Amino acid sequence: MEVKTEEKVKQLFPRHIQKIMKGNFAAAEAAKLCRAGFIPAYPITPQTTIVEELASKVARGELDATYVNMDSEHSVFAAAMGASLAGERVFTATSGQGLFYAHEVLHAIAHFRLPVVICNVGRPSIPWNIWSDQTDSISQRDTGWIQFYGESSQEVLDSVIQAYVIAESLNIPVMVVLDAFYQSHTSENIWVPDQDLVDEFLPPRKLTGGEIDGVNPKAVGGLVPPEHYETFNYRYWNDINKTEELTIETGEKFGKHFGRYYTPVEAVNIGPHTKMVLVSISSISTTIRGVIKHHPDVGLLKLRLFKPFPKNSVLEALKGLPENAKIVAVERNFLGDKEGAILGELRRALYGTNFNLYDVYTGLGGKDVPPLTIEKIIYAMENNPEPVTWIDFE
């Protein structure tokens, strides 16, 4: 007997429910599925609906968590640090100036080795703007947090679940980034796993013994001499260098458990025939996928793990390219330098190779990047490539 189409679809991901959700709601759903126990919150567009939805889940009794409205993002992250020090599984979300305001505490959370997971809905700063941009998160790449960028809302939900596994394995915080509006406020079909399926994959947080103990008080964050400071940082360095391999391992296990596989990077149409590779993160990657179907000699390298930069995975993805291939970074960030952040990271990873590297700024401040813009990038790089190009600049 032929299986009905609806039943066939359900067989793709058993123990899931398919829902139509906006990206922010997918992030909130992921926090619930991960059984976050402490959620400090402060609203800021365009992430506000993440913490609003979590507040509703707590109020409805769907999530057993302590939800606290704070008076600023600095306070949010300070509370997140304190709760994580006490052994709680912590989640929060922020955007733009909120992330900038928390800069000091981001360093503290990372170097206290706390497995906090957050979502940042990427937006720029000044001139004041609430639309999509990755300048906010990328400007915080040196605070010590692992950074993942989601291409779809499904990937955001799945990445939050994997983020807790990685954070709690390394005791290093993780930031999952999604694009403002293109993801945060756009509805997509999402496969939401059953709670028991997530529980099997993500057990309760294991305590290290270094948590705050009210019965046996201890000092945290005291002044340390240089030799101890260096030791702390060596141990941190040793562990964060495990991120890329652990991301591969976690993505493989996630795939076997949930049916959706993830890697640090994704290579599309990259091989000996490829003359150009567009390198991107987040939702622009989806547009590039569609356009390169009409360009058989153009490939896509999507970066999912951005910090620490997945050098080995990038080299593996590009190893079949001819040496005269063009590598083009598509930047939705501006950090006050000649080149964008993606190209800077590529230069480090590809040092010693002979690839031709180019940089393209596009889509800053949420400006739309339709297929025509990607076509313009390909045309410019094929016909008159400049080291740095602004596309659709007015």
Describe this structure in words.
- The chain is α/β, with parallel strands linked by helices and 394 residues long.
- It folds into two domains: 13-257, Rossmann fold (3-Layer(aba) Sandwich); 265-390, Rossmann fold.
- The chain contains 15 helices and 15 strands.
- Helix 8 (153-170) packs across helix 11 (243-258).
- The radius of gyration is 21 Å and the shape is globular.
- The mean pLDDT is 94.
Element pattern in H and E: HEHEHEHEHHEHEHEEHHHEEHEEHEHEHE
In order across it, which strands form the biggest sheet? Answer: 9-11-10-13-14-15
Share in β-strands: 15-25%
Q: Provide the CATH superfamily of the largest domain.
A: Thiamin diphosphate (ThDP)-binding fold, Pyr/PP domains
Which regions are unreliable across 5 or more consecutive residues at pLDDT < 50? none
**Computed structural class:** alpha/beta
Number of strands: 15
Q: Can you tell me the number of structural domains?
A: 2
Q: What is the name of the CATH architecture of the largest domain?
A: 3-Layer(aba) Sandwich
Name the overall outline: globular
Main sheet properties: 6 strands, mixed
CATH class of the largest domain: Alpha Beta
Radius of gyration in whole Å, from Cα? 21 Å
- Separate helix tally: 15
Distance between the termini: 60 Å
